[in-house]
Target: Peptidase_M1 domain-containing protein
Amino acid sequence: MQWWTHLWLNEGFASWIEYLAVDHCFPEYDIWTVFLANNVSSAMATDALKTSHPIEVEVHSPDEVDEIFDAVSYKKGSSIIRMINDYLGSEKFTKGLQLYIQSHKYGNTTTEDLWNALSEVCGEDVGSIMSTWTRQVGFPVLTVHKVCDTVDDGLVIAIQQDRFLTEGGYNGNGNHMNTPSTHGDTSAWYVPVTICEAADSTKVLKRVLVPPSARTEAFHVHLPGGSQIRLNPGVVGFYRVQYEGSLMAPILEALGEGRLEHRDRLCVLADAFALARAGRVRMTSALTMASSLHCEGDYVVWCELREQLGKLRSLIQERCATSKDAGGTGVITPFEGALNTFIIHLAEPSFKRLGR
Model:
C-alpha cells in the first residue's frame, strides 16, 4: 500500500485470502460459514452505527493509524472483496489480481490501482462500483416489494435501498415504521444482487446490479411468473434485505420445512432480528421466524439464535428493572417468563436429540 489510507488493501485482503486458502485445501471445514459468523456479522454490527467510518480513511499522520485497525478495515474489507469476487466471477477476478500484482511488483499501490486492473480485465468500471463501498460509511438495506405477477408481465419486483442503521426506524409517536428510517443520510451504493428461488439457493433466477438511484426511485426486476424469490443466496452480498407483503411467506415456509441451507438460515435470521432492533419491523416478525427453527441442528445458526435471544432478554430485563423488589432480588417478569418458555420450545428437540 502506498499510504495508511489504503490499509485495508493489506488487512482486508489478508483476511479474505486466509479463508480462501483454507476452503481450497480443506473444503470439508465449511470455512465460509465461519467467515459469516466471525467477519460479516461483526463488520455489520460495527458499520450499522453512526460512529462507523469508511474503509478508506484519509490518514494525515502516523498518530492516526491505530484508529483504523478495526472491524471495518479487516472484516468489512474482506467481506466486500468476497462480494466483488462473486460478482465478477472467480476467473476474471483472479486474472485481474494477476495483472495488478504484475503491474506493481516491487512497488506500492493504492485502492484505485486494484480497481483499474480489475476493470481492464473485466471490461467494467469496477472503480465506480466499489468506490461506493470503500469511500462511504455504512451499508444498505434493500427493501423488496412485489409490483405484479401476471401471465403477460411475469413477476415484477421493485428494489429500493437505504442506509441501514441500528438506531433508526421509529416515528415521532414511538411506533414502528415499515418504511426506511428517516435519518437524513443520503448514502447509496452499487449493489450486486443475486435472486434465487425462495427454497433453493442453487436455482438462480437473475443477477442484477442495483444502482445508487434506487435510493430515490425503485429499481424494477422482471422474473418468471409465479416465482417465489429470495435475495442473497449464500450470503455473499454485504447488505440486509427487508421483504414486504407476501414475499416473506414462501421463505418462512421453506425455513420451517428445513429446505434452506444453513448459511441462508443464518442470513434470514440475522436480517430479521437486525430489522426488528432497528424498528423497521416488529419483533414478533423476528420471533415468528425464530420459531420455525425449533428443530435446528446447526451450531452456527444456534450461536446466532443464542446471541439474538440473549440481546432480547437483556432488553426485557432492562425495561422491567422497576419490577425488582426492595431487597434487590430479581423476579421473573411475565415478559421474561414468556421468553424462557419460547427458548425451551426452541431448544428442547436438540436437547433430547443430544441427550441429557
Observations:
- Residues 39 and 49 are 16 Å apart (CA to CA).
- The first helix runs from residue 7 to 25.
- The two ends are 54 Å apart (CA to CA).
- Residues 169-182 have pLDDT under 50 and may be disordered.
